[in-house]
Amino acid sequence: MKVKINISSEIVTKPILAESIVETGVLLNVSQAHFDRSHGEVVADVLEEHFEKIRHALVSRGAVVTRLDTPIELNEDECVDCGACISVCPTKVFSMDKDYSLLVDTSKCIQCGTCVEMCPHNALALINNKHA
Amino acid sequence: MVKKTIHEINAKIRDGSVNVVTAEEMVDIVAELGPEDASREVDVVTTGTFGAMCSSGVWFNFGHSEPPIKMQKVWMNDVEAYTGVAAVDAFLGAAQLSESMGMEYGGAHVIEDLIRGKSVELHAVSHGTDCYPRKVLDTSLALADMNQAIMVNPRNAYQKYNAATNGSRQTVQTYMGSLLPNFGNVTYSGAGVLSPLSNDPDYRTIGTGSRIFLGGAQGYIVGQGTQHASADQFGTLMVQGDLKKMSTDYIRAANFTGYGISLYVGIGIPIPVLDEEIAQATAVTDADITINILDYGVPSRDRPVLCQASYAELRSGCIEINGKDVATSSLSSFKTARRIAAELRDWISRGEFFVSMPVENLPADSSAKAMKETGGVSLVSEIMSTNVVTIDKDASVYKAAKIIMEAEFNHLPVVSGDNLVVGIVTAWDISKAVSQGKFDLVEDMMTRKVITAKADERVDVVARRLDRHGVSALPVLNNEDHIIGIVTSDDISKLFARRH
Ligand code: SF4
Ligand code: SF4
Question: Which of A30, B188, B436, B478 could tie B163 with a disulfide, CB 3.0–4.6 Å?
Answer without folding.
Answer: B188
